[in-house]
Design goal:
By secondary structure, the chain is mainly beta. It is built from 9 helices and 44 strands. Belongs to the ITIH family.
């Protein structure tokens, strides 16, 4: 048996020759494993089909299984129009099946041809569902794999020097297709990008000696320059790369390069060096010596004359990648496709870390850049321990902020389906399962979940279905206990000077936006939008809750919008979205956002004002209740003297006196008279829930309750605090003055 291996475009091909006796039947099966790489938002599986003749029974089946769910599946027509629409797709949530089965007649190049039209690449593209902000962490059988693929990020600005081989060997189709590709690539540049072009043969020329912005005028001039290139002469790769690096260094030294930007060189060549330094190892050493750590080199090798191994080495050594371009009819498309993979850098300096002594044999966990539509993968072994969770921490720099993401995976560190050898061992395993289930609140065959209604009139018992075919871990549904409910947004105002808590509800309508804090002096606005319950009985009042909380910081133009679905961070130009599915820390200018997975968001502005938003999840099938948000604003916030709003006005604590304590209509609740802001109010001794420490059960806060939507305790009427938008809604000074001076009779 003879084995031969040769490189193909994107993968390895293996050729095997065997001796088959005459008249015998031989069946070949090839089993192999290949790590799918995500590019331009898809995993792509390619099969090279070259039967060389008509095949009576020709069939290709591609089966896809993704436990996290399949987002989309595509079968692009890469075999040509002859086979358009012949690939059939069936799919479900987690599985997909693609079949390509042309009949004998359909395989023919023409109706009466005896040759096969099947000659090319059969491609299947798909992507997976991602529930969290940026990826997933999985633990199985003592190993872990961390997939990192954030979305909804704005591209980093880039500084790019195109280094193009225009030697004599590029004459003809190679140059024509390179020029075609460059026309499209240059159109992709934006005003935030800086670029130049270096073309070389035995000499080196620069279209511009300095980087210029990607304006329409500059791009048009660059396209004209490339269009007029006439290939001739030798190949001086070393000098061309030196010139490109010098251009980036000069721009960096002169402060032209945005420190948040990404700098790269894109080399396009088809041959070995013939002029100047021709020793490949010396060129490699020269380039590495002058390349700064923040620069990257990407290489495109056209055809088979080029030393592709050299281009790959020089790229990998300088934080880039290489790609072979085949001189076929679609060479320009190959160049454009490669550029698309690296043209939208979203993050830089990415590091994935794990707690000490928790993992070993970790693959690469430091990455220079993350490009849109790609994926970073870190894998390794989980070290034996008593812990039932594995955490990972990912730090990165984005266009306008830095952030840290934390991923957490819960697992049982013993084989789940194995039988315990002794009763003692079984009890220990059972106890660990129970502890894990209670801590993270999911149902197992060993646990049940009791859900009790607010009035204790209804109880629901949720058990995990016991399926003997699925083993002990099947059906582990994460049904969360719902916290108690109240009608309408309730507020607890702590008055430290008076040593008391005052509570009031706002009886408003779904869709209304309430101004909570307006501080022109600090430049901060906090607003909350109300949502209503799903359904109410006739004549019953609609319950309302906070569905969205917005924090706007005017000096930096940054708004953080927290809803029950996601967290959005925008600065007017860039918008970044995060789900509740992962822990993350994001810092942009003077605004810091800390997300605790499925729990809370902390927004801190200029280290002076903090807003905490708690997430309350409910049973999705509940007939009336909806997910909602809780809002907590600490007393030590450093407001300016201009602060106002439903909560902000109490930054300046009013004088309060409570007297005439007596029995109320409810024998369990006392009543009294409160004197505040020139008003005498009838108040009731009661309590409200505080969920900061316990997000599920809460703790009781004893307070004096103000009736009629806080009338007399807040300045003006609550309707004065209804605003039309979630952002940029400061109270004008004259409105604040009017509200402050308004006197409401008791």
């Amino acid at each position: 048996m003879l084995h031969h291996r040769a490189n193909s475009q994107d993968m390895e091909t293996f050729k095997t020759e065997v001796h088959v006796p005459p008249g015998s039947k031989t069946e070949f099966e090839l089993h192999y494993q290949e790590m799918m790489q995500r590019k331009l938002g898809f995993y792509e599986h390619s099969l090279y089909l070259q039967p060389g003749r008509l095949v009576p029974q020709f069939q290709v089946d591609v089966y896809i299984y993704e436990p996290s769910g399949i987002a989309s599946v595509e079968t692009p027509n890469t075999l040509g129009e002859h086979f358009s629409g012949m690939a059939k797709l069936t799919s479900s949530k987690n599985k997909a099946h693609v079949v390509f089965k042309p009949s004998l007649q359909q395989q023919r190049k023409c109706e009466n041809c005896t040759t096969s039209a099947i000659d090319g690449i059969f491609t299947v593209k798909y992507d997976v569902l991602r529930d969290s902000n940026a990826g997933e962490l999985h633990v199985s059988d003592g190993h872990f794999v961390h997939f990192f693929a954030p979305a909804n990020l704005s591209p980093l600005p880039k500084n790019i020097v195109f280094v193009i081989d225009v030697s004599g060997s590029m004459w003809g189709v190679k140059m024509k297709q390179t020029v075609e590709a460059m026309q499209t690539i240059l159109d992709d540049l934006t005003m935030d990008d800086y670029f130049s072009i270096v073309d070389f043969n035995h000499n080196v020329r620069c279209w511009s000696e300095e980087l210029v912005p990607g304006s329409n005028i500059q791009v048009a001039e660059a396209k004209k320059y490339i269009q007029n290139i006439k290939p001739n002469g030798g190949t001086n790769i070393n000098e061309a790369l030196m010139r490109a690096v010098q251009m980036l260094v000069k721009a960096s030294n002169q402060g032209m390069i945005d420190p948040r930007s990404v700098s790269m060189i894109m080399l396009v060549s088809d041959g070995d060096p013939t002029v100047g330094e021709i020793k490949l190892s010396a060129i490699q050493k020269n380039v590495k010596k002058v390349m700064r750590e923040e620069f990257s080199l990407f290489s495109l090798g056209i055809g088979f004359d080029v030393d592709y191994d050299f281009l790959e080495r020089i790229a990998m050594e300088n934080r880039g990648v290489a790609q072979r371009i085949y001189t076929s009819h679609d060479a320009s498309d190959q160049i454009r496709r490669f550029y698309s993979q690296v043209s939208s850098p979203l993050l830089r300096k990415i590091t994935v870390q794990f707690p000490e002594n928790s993992v070993s044999d970790v693959t690469q966990n430091h990455f220079d850049k993350y490009f849109s539509g790609s994926e970073l993968v870190v894998a390794g072994k989980v070290l034996p321990s008593e812990s039932t969770t594995l955490n990972s921490f990912t730090t990165a720099f984005a266009v306008s902020h830095t952030y840290t993401l934390m991923f957490c995976e819960c697992y049982i560190p013993v084989p789940c389906r194995s039988l315990a050898p002794t009763a003692v061992k079984k009890r220990k395993i059972t106890q660990r399962i129970l502890t894990l289930a209670v801590e993270h609140q999911f149902v197992t065959p060993l646990t049940a979940l009791l859900v009790e209604s607010e009035e204790a009139k209804e109880r629901l018992l949720a058990d995990s279905p016991k399926d003997p075919k699925q083993g002990c871990c099947a059906g582990a549904d994460k049904n969360h206990l719902s916290p108690p409910f109240w009608n309408d947004p309730h507020f607890i105002v702590h008055l430290p000077k008076n040593n008391m808590d005052v509570c009031f509800n706002i009886d408003s309508e779904p869709g209304h936006i309430l101004n909570l804090v307006s501080d022109p002096g600090a430049g901060v606005v906090v607003n909350g939008q109300l949502v209503g319950s799903k359904r109410v009985e006739e004549k019953e009042k609609v319950n309302t809750y906070f569905g969205t909380i917005s924090v706007f910081y005017q000096p930096d133009g940054i708004r953080v919008s927290v809803s029950t679905d996601r967290i959005d961070l925008t600065d007017g130009r860039n918008n970044h979205s995060f789900t509740w599915g992962a822990t993350a820390d994001i810092t942009q200018d003077r605004v810091k956002v800390s997300i605790v997975k499925d729990s809370k968001v902390m927004v801190t502005v200029d280290d002076k004002i903090t807003v905490m938003v708690l997430l309350h999840r409910v049973w999705k099938k509940h007939p009336t209740h909806v997910d909602f948000l809780g809002l907590y604003i600490p007393n030590n916030n450093q407001y300016s003297s201009q602060a106002h709003g439903l909560i902000g006005q109490f930054g300046q604590e009013p004088e309060v006196r409570v007297f005439n304590l007596h029995q109320g209509a409810n024998p369990l609740k006392k009543e009294a008279t409160m004197e505040v802001k020139g008003n005498k109010l009838v108040v009731t001794r009661g309590w409200q829930k505080d969920y900061r420490q316990d997000n599920k059960r809460g703790s009781d806060v004893v307070c004096w309750f103000i009736h009629n939507s806080g009338k007399g305790f807040i300045d003006g009427h609550y309707t004065n605090y209804i605003v039309p938008r979630l952002d940029k809604n400061f109270f004008p000074p004259k409105i604040i003055a009017r509200l402050t001076q308004e006197v409401i009779p008791p």
